[in-house]
Specification:
Elements lengths: L1 H75 L1
Length: 77
């Protein structure tokens, strides 16, 4: 009887430990995935916004440059 109890206790402990480890790993993986996704989305949005702003500014500069060029071009004609 003592031997049986010892084995049962060992098995319970083993199962408990395995489950804890499994749960920790699953939680870690889930959190890592969530964090990666959040980070990706955050940077995608940030980069899109930065690029948009950069492009708008560049376009404005180009328009101004073209206007000036055209004015000069037609004045000379």
């Amino acid at each position: 009887v003592e031997n049986k109890t010892k084995t049962e206790t060992e098995n319970k402990t083993k199962t408990k430990t395995e489950n804890k480890t499994k749960n920790k790993t699953e939680k870690k993986t889930k959190n890592n995935t969530e964090n990666k996704t959040e980070k990706k989305t955050k940077y995608k949005t940030k980069n899109k916004t930065e690029n948009k702003t950069e492009n708008k500014t560049e376009n404005k500069e180009n328009k101004t440059e073209n206007k000036t060029e055209n004015k000069t071009k037609y004045k000379t004609k």
